[in-house]
Amino acid sequence: MPPSADSRGSAFLDLRPFRASSAFTKLWIGSTLAGLGGQLTIVTVMLHVFALTGSTFAVSMVAVAGLVPMIVAGLYGGMLADAFDRRRVALAAAVITLLSTALLATLTWAGLETIAWLYLLSVINSAANSVGMATRTAIVPRLIPADLLAAASALNGITIGVMVMVGPALAGVLVAATGYGLTYTIDVVLMLAMFLGLWSLPALRPEGEIVRPGLASLVDGWRYLRRSANIRTQYLMDIIAMTFGNPLTLFPALGTVLLGGGAITTGVLTASVAAGTFLSSVFSGRASRYRWHGRGIARAIQVYGAAIAMFGAVLLVSTFFPGADASTPHLALIAAACLALAVSGGADNISSIYRNTMMQAAVPDTMRGRLQGIFIVVVAGGPRVGALYAGTLASLTALWFPPLLGGLVVIVLVTVLLQRLPRFREYDALAPVA
Description:
It is built from 17 helices and no strands. By secondary structure, it is mainly alpha-helical. The chain has two domains: about 190 residues, Growth Hormone, Chain: A (Up-down Bundle), CATH 1.20.1250; about 220 residues, MFS general substrate transporter like domains (Growth Hormone, Chain: A, Up-down Bundle), CATH 1.20.1250.20. Helix 9 packs across helix 15, helix 10 packs parallel to helix 15 and helix 10 runs antiparallel to helix 16. The protein is globular.
């Protein structure tokens, strides 16, 4: 019986994908280091824009400007990955990212950087990264056995945890200590690691019928998704979680209005989510061997909803202890909020392990790129709809209300879906069906 057939074994991170494939190992190392560098640049650009403009609106527009190009590039990148050699597509995306970051560093060293250049190069980076991410994800099932895909997804959680925990903090330290130019240059150096994993790969042309990029290819992907009830359901559950259970947009106000501690509290809350992601991957050994991935996705999202509701409850309790400010934070309540957010990050990561594995195992090779591109739309759009939900509802009610209500809504909606969709509930990793 394959290791994924039950949940026995070590609770610690399953490292067998490293032993099974040196190509996967190199790709993982390269993606982790390049991802860390990418986080350096994302945060540094925001700091740079604020230094040049003094406007938080200008900073927020960095993310807004890159949203549509990221979605379009993700969709088109998925089509490219299903039509051409994936190694070449991923290399081309990495080269574009490297060159745009190198130009950003050069302009900064020369003192020629402008807001327009920062926006333009950020958009190019965002688009190229979307193409690279869709392509690299489609590559993984060609490098390791199917029974190790869940373990490989858990290793991806380590990458994300390191990126989000270390990247922003390191960017702040480097900018303060060395300036913007050297920080961008460090990203260029780290990004070179991506070529370590990609250059040594063999040719990886898609298997099966190939549809050239264009409207016909995109329509073909959407038609496949319409026939794939399990994939559609996991997309829907993720949208529910990100729409009603994404309180990140509230964090800046919490350090000022409710919990105290100012910007430090905002950073600690954000890091707590990443810490939960990291720790859940470290102890993902048994989770990665669990075979009922439909149930695993639903249960993890239910835990996620409960954690977000608990976070909202902590914020509600904080309203009974007024007087917090930047210099007098409510440390006990901040700790409780961080614990709730760490649980949410861990649960979201476990859900992601099963979702990624289902995508990679159940979707045929010739469709993987396009489905990953569509998934980028889900990943990019859900949190932004969630930010609109949380921000609007908080402005009409109170800061604690959106997460408390949203977490409960997530639990109820996912429970209803799980009960009404027996095919998804009985999804078996040993016999994957999209």
